[in-house]
Amino acid sequence: MAGSHKHNEATMPETEQTIAVKRFLKLFGGDLDAAVAALRDATTTTYRKRTPKATGPVVVRTENLRKSYKVGKQHVEALQGVSLEIRQGEFVAFTGPSGSGKSTLLQLIGGLDKPSEGRVVVDEHDLTKLSDRALSSFRNKTIGFVFQFFYLQPFLNLETNLAMPAIFARTSRKERNTSASTLAEAVGLADRLKHLPKELSGGQMQRAAIARALLNKPKLILADEPTGNLDSVNGGAIVDLFEKVREEFGTTIVVVTHDPKVAARADREITLKDGRIAA
Amino acid sequence: MIGLRDATMLALTKLRTRKVRLAVTIIVSGLLFSALATASFVVRGGINGVTDFNKEGLGSRFIILAQAQMNYYANENQEIIDRAKAIHNDTVARKKAAAKQLGISYEADNEPSPVSEMQSSIGGQKQQYLNSEHPAAVQAIKEYQAAHPAAGEAELKEAAAAYNPKAFFSGRHASYNLGGASFQVLKDGQESYNSAEKDRGGSDATDGFVNSWGSLSGELLEPFMLPGQNTKQGSDGSIPIIVPNNAAEQMLKLEALPPSANSHDRLDRTKEIRTKAPDARFQACYRNSTSAGLLSQAISQKADIDAHKNDKNYRQPDLVYGLPTEPCGAVPVTRDVRSSAEKTYAAKQEQFERMFGKAEPVQQTLSFRIVGITPDMDFGGAISIGQLFRSIIASSLGGGWYMPDDFTTSNPLIAAMFSNDADAFTNFTQRFVEFNTAQSAKAFLEKENCEIDYGKISANGRFNPQEICEEQGHPFTLGSYGSNSIALESFGKGFTKVFRIAALAISAIAAIIMMGTVGRMIADSRRETAVFRAIGAKRMDIAQIYITYAILLSLLVATFALIVGFALSSIANMRFSPELTVEAINAFNANDLNKTFTLYAFYWSDILMLIGLSLVVGLLSAVFPLLRNLRRNPIRDMRDDT
Fold first, then answer.
1. CATH of the domain at A65
2. Which of A136, A142, A152, A196 to mutate to test the interface with B (most CBs of B within 10 A)?
3. Whose CA is closest to B441, among B394, B490, B486?
C-alpha cells in the first residue's frame, strides 16, 4: 500500500483537488479502500458539527514519550517523542496509518504499558512512577477501556459483565448491580441484563462494553477502534453514545480510529505518523 | 483479593471451556485417586474387621510356638543301628528259648529285621538304616533320645525369661501310626465294617480324626469354646473336643452344600452349624491292635464264607470269628471245631505271643462332646479369596480336632494313642510361650530362633538339626501361633508405608495430568486475563481466580474419586463379605453370629486426606503455569489475538 501511495505522489500533478484528496486519504492512513468506503458512508450519514474546544484542566499530559520494543530480532521504535495535552471533557481522536504508534500511545496513557522514555501524567498521577498494583488500581478507577472486539465474558450475563470493574474494585454486590442496571438503561440495554453476550448484536455488545467502561465513573475513556468491528449505523450510534457520555458525565474521551467519520466527530484529531505527531 | 463468591463465579466460567479435556482430566485423575480411595476403604475395612473379630479367639494374643529340634536322622546313626541289632538278636534268642520251652515251632528267619539296606545315592555305597516302626528300632531310638533329650519346658522357660513371658502352654499330636490299633467315629452309633468305604478317604469328614487329632493346654482352647461350653469332662464322662466344621456338619446330619453353593448359603450354613453343634455328642470306638486284628480276621472270614455260599465243596475254617454283636463290642468266636490238640497248641502259641508284647483284646467307646468348631481343611483346588484371607489372618487353631491336654494322661486309651509307642519320631511335645506385647514376642522370635543350616553335616557324617540348634544355644525353632497378630501389626505398618509411596506416585501422575489442563486453560485465557488486567484486576486477583479454578478442579477430581472408591469398595464388599465372614467366624470363633466382616470402612481422616491430597496436587499444578502467566505483558496478549 505504501508503494502504491508513492507511485500516486510521483505521477499526480499537485492541484488543489489532489491536495484535498491526499489530505482525505491521510485520514485513512493512505488506505484507499477505507477512504472510498467512508465516502460512500458519507452520503448516508450526516456529520455533526464539532463542538467547541474544551477549556477544562489538563487530564492527560505526555512529555517526549518514547516507546521501543522488540518484535523477534527487529527493534521497533513505536513512539519517538510524543508530547501532548488533553483537557477534561475533550473528545480526541488518534488517527494515522497502521504502525504509526497510535494504539501504543493509547496504552501508555491507559497505564497498560510503561514508556521507554518520557513521562505520562494522567489525572495528576505520574504513571511512570506507579507500581503494578497502583497501576491496576489506577486503570480500575480512572480509566475505562473500550476494545474493538468488545471482550465481554461469554459465560457471564450482561449484568455481571457490566459489573466487572466493580468486582475488581471490591464494590458491594448490591451497589455494583445498581450501577450496572443504571448504565444498561443509559445505553439502551435495560431489558438485556440477564442475557449472555452471544444473545446480543455487535452494536449492543459494544454499547455494553462502553457501559462496563463507565461503571467505576472513570475520568477517561480510552477506546481502541471501537467502531472497527461495526457497520456504519452502529458505529455512528457508538459515537453518539460517546458524546452523550461526555455531556452527562464530563468524561474525557480518547478514541483510536481509522474511521474518518469518527475522527470528524472528535473535537480534535491527532494524527500520528512513524511515532510522531504529524498533525 | 476479590470476594470469594466472585472468585468462584469467575473460576466457574473457566470450567465451562474445553469441556472434553476437563472431563478426561477429571476421569483420569479421579480414577487414579479412586484407586487410593478404594485401597484405603477396603484395607481399613479389612483391618477393622480383623480387629473386631480379634476380640474373639486368640486373635489379640501374642503366642509363639516353640518346636524343639530332634535328631530326625537317628535311624541312619550307626551306633543306634548297632544297638537295635543287639536288641533284636537278644529278642530272637529269647523267643527261640521260649518256643523251645513251650514246644512250639519258631522260625527265626521269618522275623523281620530292624535294619534295611539301600544303595546310597552318593557314592553308590550300601547304606544301612533303621525301620523306625520295628520294636527293636523304636527301643534303640528311644534309648538314644533318653540319652540326648530334646529341649523341654525348662529350656523354653530359660530362653524366654529375658522377654517377660506371660504363660507357657503345651500340646501334642496323636500318633500318626497307631501300630495296628484303630479309632473310628461311630456313625449313627454304628461301627463301620466296610473297609472299602474307609479306603475311599475324604468322603467321610470324620475319617481324618486320628490323623488330625491334637491336644492343647485348656487355656489355649478356652477362647474357642462355643457358647455354654468348657474344657472340662462332662458329667456323663464326655470328653470336650473341637471338631472341623464339615465333621460337625456331618454329625449334625446336615447335607453338605454343593461346591457351587454361594457364599450367602455358606454363611447361613456356618451359622446353623455353630448354633446346633454345641453340646452335640458323638462316640468313637477304640480297638487295640489285638482287637482290631481279630475284627479284620472276622471281616475277611465273613467275606470268604459269603463268597462260597453256593459252593457245596467249601468247608468253613475250624475257627471262625463273627462280627461284634454290638457296636464296638468284643469279637466273638462263632465256630470252633478244632481238635483238643489244636486248641492246646493254639493256646501255647498265644502264650508265646503274649510273652513278646501281644496284648489282651481291648475295645471301648469313648464319648465326645462338641465344644468348638475349626475351619475345614480343604487342600488343593483353586485358591479362593477365603483361603487367601485365612492364610493372612491365620488365626485360630487351624484345621483339625482339638481336645484339652489333660486327657492325654488321664484317659489310658487316649494316652495309648498319644504315646506313640509305635513310632519314635512323632513322639514330641509342642510348646508355646505367650507374651504380653507384640514387641517382646517379636524380639523373642527374632533372637531365640534356631537358624538351621541345612548344609551342615555333623561329625558322624549325618545331618542332625538337634545338634546344630543346641550348638547355637537356641534349641527351638520358633513361629507365631494362634493368630497372625504379630505379622498383622507389621503388615499394618508396611501397608501404611506402601500406601504413602503409592499416594505420592499417584499424586505425581495426577499432578502432571492436571498441570497440563490448568496450564492449557491459563494459556487459553491469556486475552481474557489481559482484559481483566485492563479493567483493573491486580495480579493477585488473577492468581486468585486461577487458584480457585484449581481448587474447584481438585474438588471435582476428589468427588469423582470418592464416588468411584465408594462404589468399588461396596462392590468388593458385596462380593466378598459373606465369604470372609464365614472364614472369620470360624477362624476367630466368633460367638456373636450376627457379626459380619465388612470390607469397607470410611474414615473422615482418610477422606479428608484424599481431598487434601488432590487439593495439593491441583494447587501444585496451577503454580507453574500461573507464575509464567503473571509475568506476561497484558498488552502483548491482547494484541496477539487480534
1. 3.40.50.300
2. A136
3. B486
